[in-house]
């Protein structure tokens, strides 16, 4: 008996066909359309699922169920995902994207489960890597920041299925950097892959201000803002900043500051959910494991009133959401094959 797992991200949509042991027999991926309509995104999801079925040499109508892990703000009752700050501006006026009903029609089954992507990631990590742990947080640091929570062995859903939006916890009360959600001072406005270049510009401007105030005495702190990074360029990426940490003074300063802010954000998350394990995924963390995770491991205890959890890099990496989506096709959480 096969099911389908879908990972709908801002950049890519991916699907797998697999069985209840997690063995994958088919897969496919495509770029996520950046509009112009919600239907275009739905069609792309259905196309990728059809292609994964072809790759597995099975008819879509023989698939027993499906799980979807989606970016954005989901509506579990409606089976749709609303627009998120993750998609491009072209899609800002998009209606909610229908996912559950169209996929149920294609597969001719009612067993279709929709979760937000981080919760699917948590389900994947829990099932595949940490099956003996009752309380686990899967934290993703990528273009945004979010968490999926397994609490006392069960996925924490929240209203409409949107618990775990921890990237919008405030870590800067002064709110100096605006967040994609419209508020300011949020964790992902400073430490996500999309935001780290803005943090670099902010820290460089801070240093510039101090220099003009004390022209004759340049303090050690101000030497941090010397840089060869192309700060004015829109092409400056978080990856470039991490790459130059240790050699470029500003890049080093930015990565240090990101580490300090991640300790605050992670401390909030751990105090809220008391997990035994925090599994960290997302490209920013996966590609810079020691620069991102080591400072958190070293400093996190200073923030905690609960037991210090094990902080590990996601074993499943980029597959966590897809694996979790496939898993919840079999386990439900209402609506799955045995739900
Ligand atoms: Zn926000």
From TrEMBL:
One GO molecular-function entry: UDP-N-acetylglucosamine 2-epimerase activity
Where is region (Disordered) located?
A: 207-226
Q: Does the keyword Nucleotidyltransferase apply?
A: no
Which EC class is the enzyme in?
Answer: transferase
- Which EC number applies? 2.7.1.2
Kindly give the Gene3D superfamilies that the UniProt entry links to this protein.
Answer: 3.30.420.40
Q: What is this protein called?
A: Glucokinase
Biological source species: Natrialba magadii (strain ATCC 43099 / DSM 3394 / CCM 3739 / CIP 104546 / IAM 13178 / JCM 8861 / NBRC 102185 / NCIMB 2190 / MS3) (Natronobacterium magadii)
Source gene? Answer: glcK2
């Amino acid at each position: 008996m096969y099911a389908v797992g879908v990972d709908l991200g801002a950049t890519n949509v991916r699907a797998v066909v697999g069985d209840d042991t997690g063995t994958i027999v088919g897969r496919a991926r495509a770029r996520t359309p950046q509009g112009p309509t919600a239907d275009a995104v739905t069609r792309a999801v259905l196309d990728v699922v059809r292609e994964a079925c072809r790759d597995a040499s099975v008819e879509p109508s023989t698939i027993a169920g499906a799980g979807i892990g989606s970016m954005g703000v989901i509506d579990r009752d409606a089976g749709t995902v609303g627009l998120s700050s993750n998609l491009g501006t072209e899609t800002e006026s998009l209606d909610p994207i229908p996912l559950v009903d169209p996929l149920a029609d294609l597969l001719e089954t009612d067993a279709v489960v929709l979760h937000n992507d981080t919760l699917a990631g948590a389900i994947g990590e829990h099932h595949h890597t940490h099956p003996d742990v009752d309380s686990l947080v899967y934290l993703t640091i990528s273009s945004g920041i979010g968490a999926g929570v397994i609490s006392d062995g069960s996925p924490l859903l929240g209203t409409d299925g949107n618990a775990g939006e921890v990237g919008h916890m405030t870590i800067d009360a002064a709110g100096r950097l605006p967040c994609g959600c419209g508020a300011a001072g949020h964790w992902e406005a400073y430490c996500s892959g999309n935001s780290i270049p803005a943090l670099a510009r902010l820290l460089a401007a801070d240093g510039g201000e101090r220099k003009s105030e004390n022209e004759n005495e340049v303090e050690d702190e101000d030497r941090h803002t010397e840089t060869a990074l192309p700060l004015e360029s829109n092409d400056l990426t978080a990856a470039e900043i991490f790459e130059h940490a240790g050699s470029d003074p500003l890049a080093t300063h930015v990565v240090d500051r990101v580490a300090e802010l991640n300790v605050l954000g992670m401390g909030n998350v751990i105090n809220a959910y008391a997990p035994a394990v925090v599994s960290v995924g997302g490209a920013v963390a996966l590609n810079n494991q020691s620069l991102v995770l080591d400072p958190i491991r070293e400093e996190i205890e200073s923030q905690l009133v609960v037991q210090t959890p094990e902080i590990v890099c996601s074993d499943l990496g980029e597959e966590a959401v897809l694996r979790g989506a496939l898993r919840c096709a079999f386990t439900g959480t209402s609506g799955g094959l045995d739900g």
